[in-house]
Amino acid sequence: MEERIRILVVDDEEPIRDLFEEFLSDQGFSVVTAPDGETALRLMKEDSFDLLITDLEMPDIRGIDLLEKAKEMVDPPTTILITGYGTVETAVEAMKKGAYDYVLKPFKLNEILQIINRAVEKRKLEKENVRLRQTLSLYQMSEAMGTSLDLNRVIEMISDTILQEFNADLVVVVLQEETIKKAFEKWRVPSRFPPGSERIDFARIMETLLAEKVVLVHGEELTNYLIGQPPEDQMPETLMAVPLKVRDQVLGMMVVVSFARGRRFVEGERKALLILASRAAIAVENARLYRQLEEAFRETIEGLVFALEAKDRFTRGHSERVSQYAKIIAEGMGLPEEEVEKISQAARLHDIGKIGIKMEALLKEGKLTPEEYKMFQTHPEIGKRILEPIGFLQDIVPLIYHHHERYDGTGYPERKKGEEIPLGARILAVADSYDVMTSDRPYRKALSVEEAVEELRRNRGTQFDPHVVDVFIEELKKRGIYHHP
Q: What is 146-288's CATH number, 3.50.50.60, 3.30.450.40, 3.40.50.2300, 1.10.150.130?
């Protein structure tokens, strides 16, 4: 059933207000009246209206000023101005300000009705155009989603599109795994309202959706889905939610909220969101399965490295320790979390290439022969060849390939120098060397922390990036591992 058109009539003359209310109600419209502009503004902030019919001259706010303030609403009404003191100038001004029409008193009710019907048709066409643009945008976005297997990227695309196309303030995507729920929350930026999502009862919303009931609520009904009573400026105005469902399995839900006064999501928007959710659920499921496969594959590769190290009591746990040291350095340099994780992961796999060389040569006591040392130098190249075909490890390949380069350009495999060497590889070089120096080897006993740090200092600027060395030493001090100045 189509919702009735809502009309707000504003006039300081009570007989005119009563006349409009009776006549337009008989025509099937939902009519609310206000005696002045201030009351009208309050009503528009509390609720949404399709049409605003206002007197031009009123004691507090002129009709043209009310028109301008109404245009600031999230979903501004179509405005018709009425006056008994009409001039060509005021008519021109009204139309310039965005009034749909300008009517002189006295007027015939049938003439007013014709203007209202035309305004309603125009508004319907405008809303239909918005829905068409929205549908096109959602289709384009759903197509883009199908090309991505990155779960965070999929969620980001969903959230950005919903915020824009539904003129929303908040999107929360909840993924449900057994009893674990993970929420991805995104606000309009810049947000027009302070965060208030912690007041939303997501468990209650999920319960309603699982019972196959619709969640599309406003005003008082919305309090059924809130925890406690939020402050006035954190009180949602309208909320809709749909399940993320693949076949008969509910993966989670999408919750969309607006805090703008007078804004109300409509059933058409909920249905559009439901269509989007069906595509999003497939994309989320594919991305999640890909992430699980990716994690399993990564763990398998790391397992190979650990198995390699397990054959030698001197190198057992080496890669994991290098990973920890590399993470300490990266965090100490203030690198982004994503970059820290990438460097840490590269450290765990930095010796994967040793799978392709004869380990007995590395385990002997005494120095390597020139031939053995040349063989050892091939392990970054072998590691590169092993990892390059694996798409999700592409970012860490350069770090592993170049972690034996020297800052002065005398390292291998490509004799890169200074900042030509990827930062992550420069960090690995310090972390790797420190662990080698502080661990027992077949050909020597472990150095003390003080001796290892002194060796790092002695080689800063030649073998190692000076800044990386300085950060590492400072981090060792902070952790009470190194106590000297």
A: 3.30.450.40
Contacts of 314 (CB under 8 A, 6+ apart): 363, 439, 440, 441, 442
Local confidence band at 390 (pLDDT 50, 70, 90 cut-offs):
confident
259 CB-near residues (< 8 Å, 6+ apart): 169, 170, 192, 193, 196, 234, 235, 236, 237
Q: How far apart are CA 351 and CA 400, in angstroms?
A: 8
Segment 267-286, tens digit of pLDDT: 778 887 887 787 778 777 77
Angle between helical axes of 337-348 and 423-437 (0-180°, round to 10): 50
Q: Which helix (H) or strand (E) holds 238?
A: strand 238-246
CATH class for the region spanning 311-478: mainly alpha
Q: In whole angstroms, give the CA distance from residue 103 to residue 112.
A: 8
CATH of domain 6-123: 3.40.50.2300
* C-beta of residue 461 within 8 angstroms of C-beta of residue 408: yes
Cα–Cα separations (whole angstroms), residue 352 to 321, 324, 355, 377, 400? 15, 17, 6, 13, 9
- Closest to 466 measured CA to CA, from 434, 433, 418, 404: 418
Weakest-pLDDT range from 169-183, 381-395, 458-472? 169-183
Secondary structure class of 392 (helix, strand, coil)? helix
Q: What token pair was written down for 123?
A: 């508004």
Residue-wise pLDDT for 212-237, tens only, equals: 888 999 878 888 998 887 777 778 88
Q: What is the pTM of this model?
A: 0.49
Position 460 scores a pLDDT of 95
Question: Across the beta sheet with 180-187, what order do the strands follow?
Answer: 180-187, 170-177, 249-258, 238-246, 215-218
Q: Choose between 96 and 434: higher pLDDT.
A: 434
**How far is residue 1 CA from its own chain's centroid?**
36
Q: What are phi and psi of 5, to 5 degrees?
A: -65, 130
Domain ranges within the chain, ordered by starting residue: 6-123, 146-288, 311-478
Helix axes 109-145, 151-165, angle to 10 degrees: 170
